[in-house]
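ok, trying the design again with the full structure, not the truncated one.
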């Protein structure tokens, strides 16, 4: 296997048990690997894929965090800025990629 293939297999393996929803997988891994994870889960758990899976993966694959560093500057800088961006991304992910920029910054 190539390094790239080995990395992809590791990502799929790591997410088999994570139970991250399809949209989050699409955002984190891209559509192709998200599909691989969802198909592997379906086989592993002997469950059919839900009909909306493709739409959710696609929604995540094109999602962009609605907050950027410039939204937080100049109030925050350096490591503090990085921590705040990570916290906002975590909140956005926990809410299934749905909060808007204004909702995250409120």
């Amino acid at each position: 296997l190539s390094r790239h293939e080995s990395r992809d297999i590791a990502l799929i393996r790591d997410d088999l048990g994570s139970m991250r929803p399809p949209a989050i997988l699409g955002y984190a891994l891209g559509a192709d690997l998200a599909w691989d994870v969802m198909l592997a889960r379906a086989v592993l758990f002997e469950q059919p894929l839900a009909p909306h899976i493709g739409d959710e993966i696609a929604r995540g694959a094109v999602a962009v965090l609605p907050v950027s560093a410039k939204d937080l500057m100049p109030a925050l800088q350096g490591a503090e800025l990085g921590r705040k961006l990570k916290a906002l991304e975590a909140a956005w992910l926990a809410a299934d990629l749905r909060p808007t920029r204004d909702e995250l910054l409120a």
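Keeping the full-length input from now on. The CA atoms of residues 15 and 48 lie 18 Å apart.
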